[in-house]
Specification:
Strand content: 25-35%
Shape: globular
Number of helices: 5
EC number: 2.3.-.-
CATH superfamily: Gcn5-related N-acetyltransferase (GNAT)
GO molecular function, one term: acyltransferase activity
Order of helices and strands: EEHHHEEEHEHEE
Enzyme class: transferase
Largest sheet: 8 strands, mixed
Pfam family, one: Acetyltransf_3
Oligomer: single chain
Number of strands: 8
Number of domains: 1
Protein name: GNAT family N-acetyltransferase
Length: 179
């Protein structure tokens, strides 16, 4: 699976690699810290997480993390992942989360990445995409809506945080999701 490349001609999604660590660390800003982990990433922690992502690909685990890259230069601009084992999801549902580095925001790249990963998720057997967003993360909610997801509900998660759930039915056999 390490050779997987999904592209729409503008963005390419491919599995994260250890040589992406520097780009990720350089791209982190206060918004990523706020919405992702609550504290700045460390090199050791980022390398450990990327190794975990690589292992998940190698073992066909429930996490599929992909770098979002520009099609032209293959520059890492963020990443997107699927999680098939999130507590609270129903059978067939897959969680989708994403981050985009500041220099690349506002260009529609994450929406493109979401549409691409939805096709991949459908091929892997998922029937519904779920994007869970902090109610104050307006940019992430806008990505969900632009990608065809509709608001479903707000839940109090196990960690005590509230999330708005956006859902999209995925097509059979990896066709394009309806918007």
């Amino acid at each position: 699976m390490h050779d997987l490349n999904l592209s729409d001609g503008v963005v390419v999604l491919s599995p994260l690699r250890l040589d992406d660590v520097d780009a990720h660390l350089a791209g982190e800003d206060e918004l990523l810290v706020r919405w992702l982990s609550g504290e700045p990433a460390t090199r050791a922690g980022t390398e450990a997480y990327f190794r975990h992502c690589i292992e998940q690909w190698a073992t066909c685990g429930p996490l599929r993390a992909l770098g979002i890259r520009t099609a032209a230069q293959r520059t890492l601009v963020g990443y997107i992942d699927l999680r098939f084992d999130v507590e609270g999801l129903e059978p067939g549902q897959v969680n989708i989360s994403y981050v985009l580095y500041p220099a690349w925001r506002g260009q529609g790249l994450v929406s493109r990445a979401v549409r691409l990963i939805c096709r991949y998720a459908a091929v892997e057997g998922a029937t519904q995409g779920v994007i869970r967003v902090d109610p104050e993360n307006y940019a992430s909610a806008a990505v969900a809506r632009r990608s065809g997801f509709t608001y479903d509900k707000q839940l109090l998660e196990e960690d005590g945080n509230r999330t708005d759930w956006y859902l999209l039915s995925l097509p059979d056999e990896g066709g394009l999701p309806s918007t």
